[in-house]
Design goal:
The chain is an alpha/beta fold. It has seven helices and 14 strands.
Length: 293
């Protein structure tokens, strides 16, 4: 399932099939791997899936990659800045329609500071809902609602190739961060189950190379999340345990850059467990603690 790193270099246009090209943005990080994958779909009249971060070099690269063609649509899987930040500039440069994920609505207590914060300026011409189909020149795209990583996350199925553009919902290089309150583990697990009911032949994610055996990989992802849940439950005590202590124990040797993300993902698991009546939360002077019911 791994892909050679040289094919994922920023600025390189990779021909992935008759209808699919990929251009990686120059925004590598602990959260984005080698950078955000922007996909160009079709020939002649084309669509761009996830234009990427607000980066002038990436804008120039996208325009160069589609020179002589007409960008008619820009599709966005979700509104984290590393996926949607360039949407307005690409729309202005091409006249394309901006469609896909609905605009983000901030929740009370929204966490700030993660690498992939939402783009507050994203304004689609049309938000696409579950099952909506977009028929372009030789390309048919169907919207699959997949909330969890973000409340407004959607995937796009390329019907002609049985390919699914999965944004940050499913990636081969890493598991997705689920960060409350916008991220929701209950929704995320339900969205994984939704994809298990499909027969896509390949996933093209927002970072890294493809998932070439989707059903096997989805089973592994669900299993990983259940193992993480079990690890969290094993660290709870009757007197209650705080999230930093759970993370320190459940994620040994964690990269310090990922501690906040791991803490939020742990919170997402705990919120899911509370909904299921397995875990209780108590607020004390030092903050919230969690215990098994």
């Amino acid at each position: 399932m791994a892909e050679l790193p040289e094919t994922l270099q920023a600025g390189l246009v990779a021909e992935l099939g008759e209808r699919v090209r990929r251009l990686v943005a120059p925004n590598p990080s602990a959260f984005t791997f080698t950078g955000t994958c922007s996909y160009i779909l079709g020939r002649g009249d084309v669509a761009v899936v996830d234009p990427g971060p607000d980066d002038d070099a990436h804008l120039a690269a996208l325009l160069a990659a589609t020179r002589g063609e007409r960008v008619t649509h820009i599709l966005v899987t979700h509104t984290h800045r590393d996926h949607a930040g360039l949407a307005a500039k690409l729309k202005a440069a091409t006249g394309a329609r901006l469609v896909g994920a609905r605009a983000h609505v901030a929740a009370t207590g929204e966490q700030k500071g993660l690498d992939a914060a939402h783009d507050a300026h994203y304004a689609p011409d049309r938000a696409l809902e579950e099952g909506e189909t977009l028929a372009l020149d030789g390309v048919t795209l169907t919207t699959i609602a997949t909330p969890g990583h973000a409340a407004n996350h959607v995937c796009f199925a390329l019907e002609e190739e049985k390919a699914l553009f999965t944004g940050d919902h499913v990636m081969a290089w890493s598991t997705s961060v689920v960060a409350p309150p916008d991220g929701d583990m209950t929704d995320y697990m339900a969205s994984l189950e939704k994809l298990r009911g499909r027969d896509d032949a390949i996933f093209w994610p927002g970072h890294g190379g493809p998932v070439t055996d989707p059903q096997r990989y989805l089973r592994a992802l669900v299993g990983h999340r259940r193992q993480r849940e079990a690890a969290i439950l094993a660290r709870l005590e009757p007197s209650g345990v705080a999230i930093p202590d759970i993370v320190a124990s459940a994620y040994p040797g964690l990269d310090p850059r990922l501690v906040k993300a791991a803490s939020l993902s742990t919170l997402a698991h705990l919120e899911d467990l509370m909904r299921r009546g397995i875990v209780a939360r108590a607020v004390r002077e030092g903050g919230a603690v969690y215990s098994r019911v």
